[in-house]
From TrEMBL:
Record keywords, A-Z: Membrane, Transmembrane, Transmembrane helix
Protein's UniProt name: Conjugal transfer protein TrbI
Coiled coil: none
Annotated membrane topology: Single-pass membrane protein
Stretches for region Disordered: 99-147
One GO location term (cellular component): membrane
UniProt family annotation: Belongs to the TrbI/VirB10 family.
Length: 373
């Protein structure tokens, strides 16, 4: 009794398995018996010449355009017309050649010779310009052949020829008893220099001066006096005094006029340099006073304006005018002290040299006239 349900269950399972196997076998048999479907393109296929590749049919070419041929009209010209046309072409060709060879500038009447000279110069320059253009390195766009031509012209301008090196002066025989140009005469100041006022100078020769030729003959003895002047006109920033010597007075009373020979310091610089007074205390003191005057005047005017009412009185106007005028007068006086020039002082005993700018010739060596020769 207990095994019957088991047998029934096994039988049901076997029936289900058998039904499934039958269904699968029936579907497989139907699939094998069905013919294959073939899809055919409705468009006709054309076999091309491409190694068995089937290509679509080619597009038919468009219809060719029909070109109507125009009739050729033959014009027969006479012999005279051909000659005229040929003559006209020759004239035009000649005009073009003349235009190319003609100068770019119009020459004025009377300048035919100058025009020929310019054309000749242009003919000489043209090969140089062409050579320079041919030698131009590639890629140099800023190359200017005219610059090289101007450099060549520098040598032409620098060539002075024989006349440029020949002076109209020739070598002259010097005198034995002579002091040549450029010789220095050592001296010492006896008087001093103050640039506030112009004045004269007195100095004394500190060394004997001999002739230039051999240096054996005494021409200017030590102790001779020098007479000169100085320039008292001084500008702001100047530190040297300009001096000119006019005369030499010998110990025996004889003299030689020098003209205006300059003086130089012992270092060889022109002019004398010793003490310089720039008046800084005076200038800055003036500036301080100017600021005080300006401030006082402005304060007085503002004070009067504040104290006065809308109706100005005579006293108010008088006070304002007086303050303005006093301030202006003080400013004008103080303004002059700002532009004061420096004072140059050269003390006595200053050593210097007189530079000869002319040849000094003597008849004989120096010998005092009073003691005889």
């Amino acid at each position: 009794m207990s095994r019957r349900p088991m047998y029934i269950g096994i039988g049901v399972v076997l029936l289900i398995v058998a039904a499934l196997m039958y269904a699968l076998d029936d579907s497989e048999r139907k699939r094998r018996e069905k013919p294959p479907e073939v899809t055919v393109d409705e468009r006709a296929l054309v076999a091309g010449q491409g190694a068995g590749v089937i290509l679509p049919p080619p597009t038919p070419p468009p219809p060719a355009e029909v070109v109507e041929k125009k009739p050729v009209v033959v014009v027969v010209q006479g012999e005279g017309e051909d000659k005229e046309a040929e003559e006209l072409r020759k004239r035009r060709r000649q005009m073009l050649l003349n235009a190319l060879s003609s100068p770019m500038l119009k020459q004025q009447s009377g300048g035919a010779a100058r025009a020929e000279g310019r054309q000749a110069a242009a003919a000489v320059r043209m090969p140089r310009e062409q050579d320079g253009a041919a030698a131009q390195p590639p890629g140099s766009e800023n190359y200017d052949p005219a610059a090289n031509i101007d450099k060549e012209g520098f040598f032409t301008r620098a060539d002075t020829g024989d006349a440029g090196w020949l002076s109209r002066y020739t070598r002259e025989e010097g005198r034995l008893l002579e002091i040549k140009t450029g010789t220095v005469i050592p001296a010492v100041l006896i008087s001093g220099i103050n640039s506030d006022l112009p004045g004269v100078l007195i100095a004394q020769v500190s060394q004997n001066v001999y002739n230039t030729a051999n240096g054996r003959h005494l021409l200017i003895p030590q102790g001779a006096k020098l007479y000169g002047v100085y320039d008292s006109r001084v500008v702001y920033g100047q530190e040297r005094t300009l001096v000119a010597w006019n005369r030499i007075i010998f110990p025996d009373g004889s003299s030689v006029t020098l003209g205006a020979m300059p003086g130089a310091d012992m270092s060889g610089y022109s002019g004398f340099h010793d003490q310089v007074n720039n008046h800084y205390v005076r200038i800055f003191g003036t500036a301080f006073l100017m600021s005080a005057v300006i401030g006082t005047t402005a304060y007085a005017v503002d004070k009067l304006d504040k104290d006065s009412s809308d109706d100005a009185t005579f006293q108010d106007e008088l006070g304002t005018a007086l303050a303005n005028q006093m301030g202006s007068a003080a400013m004008a006086i103080l303004q002059r002290n700002l532009g004061i020039a420096p004072t140059l002082e050269i003390r006595p005993g200053y050593q210097f040299n007189v530079v000869t700018t002319k040849d000094l010739a003597f008849a004989e060596p120096y010998t005092p006239y009073r003691t005889g020769r």
